[in-house]
Amino acid sequence: MAEKIQENLISLCKRRGFIFQTSEIYGGLQSFYDYGPLGVELKRNIKKLWWKEMVQNHKEIVGLDSSILMHPKTWQASGHLEGFTDPLVECKRCHKRFKADELTKDRCPECGGALTNSKDFNLMFKTFMGSTEDSASEVYLRPETAQGIFVNFKNVLQTSRLKIPFGVAQIGKAFRNEITSGNFIFRIKEFEQMELEYFVNPKNASKIHEKWQKKRLNWYIDLGINKENIRLKKHSKDQLAHYAKACSDVEYNFPFGWSEIEGIANRQDFDLTQHSKFSHQDLVYLDPETGEKFAPHIIEPSAGVERPLLAFLIDAYEEMAGETGKKKEVVLRLDKRLSPIKVAIFPLIKKEPLQKIAKEIFNDLKSAWMCQYDETGSIGKRYRRQDEIGTPYCITVDFDSLDDDSVTIRDRDTREQERIKIKELKLILRQRLDF
Ligand code: GAP
Q1: SS3 22
Q2: When you count CB atoms within 10 A of the terminal residue's CB, does the N or C end of the chain come out lower?
Q3: Is the CB of 374 under 6 A from ligand 1?
């Protein structure tokens, strides 16, 4: 059943323009995806809501946008060159590659062939800068946005007059040459991260780490994820990344099982100490009040954009028996803040003057919210089309509108319709859509 839902959702994503396989006309490129007209809106809404929650709502958190390609020493200092590896085995017969720690048998799961010995495979994508392809010009596509924040620690501190505790947040692309990928957009090679690096006094690190775990879990619940489908899961010592003292994941109950959508780590002073060592720069903090000098510890809530997006879609996806009892109907019960389209406007039929009034309403509302104008098909079909993409409100101009200057507004979740004066529409929508 869960697999069926996943399959139907993936097909909806393609059919309605949320997500496409990249370069599809050439047969696609495995583990890379493109976001269509609705997907791009959903992604932008997630990023906007994250930024509001993590930057705008805090006086002590600021933003940053750093380069994807960084000085190669960054990755030496961060430990990624040496340690950001997965154990790789290859089938000697079919040459498929697998993560050794995910295999349950010592034969190829695809063809039963013998496997090579496991070797460490670095997940960073390498490229070359300049005109020569030698080791001196090697650079890496960043595997996490976090390092851009650490190398700018001093710049931000000196220019923003922030005092500890303070945070620097960033949203941007990250790349990982994952050995195994799959489950649609869950494990991909190019993705976006939303990361906060929160610099704290070591004395308070554990307490602040606890606080961020709760805050991050609640963010998803507040945005509509069902409490039963989301949890915090603490890493055991052997699951911790090389830099972390403690870490908890926010996990979502996907059709393929409980899986991480965000990690909240206590990175200690690992990063700043390493970058101090490799750059010979003093990356310590001098407390202006106590005179105390220390390398701040870092608490890091780190989420992707795509995994939460998939979780929001799956959680919102509902199939219901159609009103006529025949074909099933899909409603995407996304939180209104996430919905790609907020308002759809229809003339009851494709005739003047209903079209003219509906277009005027569309033109009036479009600067405030993402709106769609639709005049094709029966009104029932148009409602279904909007339900399927999660549009919270549909407005219909009918023949009564010519006499009473009113329209009907239909609510996606209750399916109730109210009659509202056209001149009051904006105000009413503002009350329902602006948060
Ligand atoms: N700076 C810490 C860090 O990068 P991570 O647990 O490796 O930690 C954080 O990644 C988040 O980035 C994950 O929780 C996930 O949402 C996202 N992410 C990581 N690898 C991904 C992949 N291959 N595909 C999609 N999202 C990924």
Answers
A1: coil
A2: N
A3: no
